[in-house]
Design a protein that fits this description.
The protein is of the alpha+beta class and 104 residues long. The protein contains 3 helices and 3 strands, in the order αβααββ.
């Protein structure tokens, strides 16, 4: 765990250098779980990846452009893979489309 790592200084990619990573690691973990909960809320019915990406952009007030589509889309696909690997969602194919749906 990052919280238990020892170093004189930590240089996170999206924050100022710090001597203590505990708070930042905690905030990051909370944000990961917040986004996972948000994705799960979108998946009460089967949804294609593109619709999930659109919902995330709408929810967080993002404006779609190619760079954001690639970056956020890749991140969302990683979340979906993690949620599937942890048994919280399922992926099914219907009509040659990949659909995601919450389990339970």
């Amino acid at each position: 765990m990052v919280e238990t790592m020892k170093a004189n200084v930590f240089v996170p990619s999206h924050a100022e250098a710090t001597k203590d990573m505990k708070e930042l690691a905690c905030l990051n973990r909370e944000k990961v779980h917040e986004i996972a909960r948000k994705l799960l809320s979108f998946l009460s019915v089967p949804v294609i990846t593109e619709e999930i990406i659109k919902k995330v952009f709408d929810e967080y007030g993002l404006e779609m452009n190619f760079e954001q589509y690639v970056l956020v889309g890749s991140t969302i696909r990683s979340y979906l893979s993690w949620l599937r690997d942890t048994g919280r969602i399922d992926a099914v194919f219907e009509g040659n489309r990949l659909l995601w749906q919450r389990i339970g």
